Amino acid sequence: MNLSNFGEKILRCRQNAGLTQEELALRIGVTPQAISRWERNQSMPDILILSDLCRVLNVSADLLLDTIHGNITGEYDVKTQEEIFENLNRCCEPLEIIAGIAFVPFWENSKGTALLAEQRMLLSKEGFLLPLVRVCDDERLLANEFMITAFRHVLYQENMETVDETSWAHIAETLGNVTRSHYSRILNRDIVKLLCDNLKQRYPALIENTVPENISYGLLTDVLKCLVKEGNSPACLPQIIEIIDGRLRENPDAGTEELAGLAARELSGTDTLEQLFIRRT
Q: Other C-beta atoms within 10 Å of 256: how many?
């Protein structure tokens, strides 16, 4: 185990995740000063916090602590090995904003992280949990081009006429719209687990002994993807869980299509607030 560059790794992973020290601290329940001390190698996080830190930064504890023993580079080049695993991890990113070089000078000046946080709040009011968004530049793109990808698949691409201080506000707003229209492509088990963990705090009877005991995260994710693709709001998750749980108690072998069809019929009688507002506009 090599902890000499532990702080540098946290710093790099935090920046890759598009988080400030304050945002990271808020996510894992510590002070920004603690994050600063970790990044300067002045102290180490408690072992109980390490798992939350890895989850928020979307990295493994092995990477942070240098306990990866497998040699995949031939000469055991640690830097190259880390880069390889970083490239592999990028293939699993739920969301990425990839921008041409013209956008780079304006990222910090536009308060980009604050813009993403604003979109995250707006989406949450509609039932969408926006995962961590990785922001990076790529010299292979045109200078004024940006893309929004999910698991390395392009969901949106645009080549802007000009790039200035307002461009990142446009990208953030576009990200929100892309998230709404492509949420079935973005959803994964980790996001569904976070949604269920949040519900468990407010409505323990809904989740306890139900998810994942009776409804696996995989099954719930597949059903939710089907429903979201058909225009149902993820805000209906509590009702969806109750519908699925009831049917599985009657028929434990019910599959995704049957459960999604049943839930769609049950939910079709009324509109969500968002659907009502969309019709009015």
A: 16
* CA 182/CA 179 separation, integer angstroms: 5
pTM of the prediction?
Answer: 0.68
pLDDT tens-place string over residues 41-83: 888 887 768 878 888 888 777 777 765 444 434 443 455 656 6
Ranges of H-type helices in the chain: 6-16, 21-28, 32-39, 47-57, 61-65, 78-90, 112-124, 167-181, 183-186, 189-202, 204-207, 217-229, 237-250, 256-267, 273-280
Exposed/middle/buried for 202, CB within 10 Å: 0-12, 13-18, 19+?
A: exposed
- How would you classify the pairing of strands 95-99 and 145-150? antiparallel
CA distance 148 to 24: 23
DSSP 31-72: -HHHHHHHHTTS----HHHHHHHHHHHT--HHHHHT------
Tokens encoding 259: 């459960």
